[in-house]
Amino acid sequence: MSKENLYCYVVGTAGAGKSTLTAAYDRALKQRGLDVITLNLDPGAERLPYTPDVDIRDWIKISEVMEEHGLGPNGAQVAAADMVALNLTEVQEELGTFRSDYVIVDTPGQVELFVFRESGRFVVQHLNPERSMVAYLLDPFLARTASGFASQLMLGATTQFRLQVPLAPVLSKADVLSMEDLDLITSWSHDADALEDAVIAETPSMHQQLSVELVRALATLGGYPGLIHVSSQSGEGFDDLNAAVQSSFFASEDLLSD
Ligand SMILES: Nc1nc2c(ncn2[C@@H]2O[C@H](COP(=O)(O)OP(=O)(O)O)[C@@H](O)[C@H]2O)c(=O)[nH]1
Ligand SMILES: [Mg+2]
To answer: How many domains does the chain have?
Structure first.
């Protein structure tokens, strides 16, 4: 596989829609005539809505990890996530058998397994750190309150801090939100003052200072202009997602050529 492959890591909290979006984005890119492959990095996935071109489950099986190490399901998920790094050479070799422009990477169900443990960082840094970005999915049900929305942006910022690659924030499953909720979330994503006011209105006065400082830190970081609304069900938003993915790569190319 050439050095020019672009890696889009799909990251987000459990149930945010990562695997479904991986499937829908793969379809959307193929319809646009692009060469794309999917890489599943979730050893714990039981069923996937797509057939991964490269699948970590070929090397790591949760049932075997539980048996061999005497672990329960949660311990096995953690151990299996750590083992992903140990199998990266094999994953890389198999990726090398494909010629593609894009690699869409589906990540473990629980965000902390990829973002907080060393394995995720190791994968990103070893596959192609200069040609990688994160599509960070915000769960629409958690994004309907200002504090839920802000918390997810903070987790997105933490993800970027850990993985050190560009990040595009994506409001997942936009089809499940009412027009009213979509408008509210859009206003928070454009206007730091509106988000701050809404967070204050939700927070008891004795805890407001922490909330305000955290929301202001997000604003200082540049906020998240261009929150992309995507629905894997209706197919809405994939042109916008693709534009954001492309511009992250161009931004890193600019950095590289500096
Ligand atoms: N309505 C709707 N449901 C979705 C969408 N994307 C995912 N889902 C559902 O959300 C649930 C979790 O999705 P999944 O992709 O497994 O989440 P993951 O844990 O982040 O990989 C599943 O029941 C999906 O069918 C979407 O765009 N719209
Ligand atoms: Mg999944």
So the answer is: 1
Task: Tell me, yes or no, whether 1 lies in a domain.
Answer: no
Name the most confidently modeled range: 4-8, 97-101, 140-144: 140-144
Closest atom of ligand 1 to CA, residue 231:
27
Q: Which domain holds residue 247?
A: 6-253
Phi/psi at 210 (nearest 5 deg)?
-60, -45
52 lines ligand 1 (CB under 6 A): no
**CATH assignment at residue 192:** 3.40.50.300
Say how many C-beta atoms besides its own lie within 10 A of residue 29's C-beta: 22
Residue 258 belongs to a domain: no
109-115 average pLDDT score: 95
**Dist. CA 15 → ligand 1 center (Å):** 6
Say if ligand 1 is within 6 A of residue 17 CB: yes
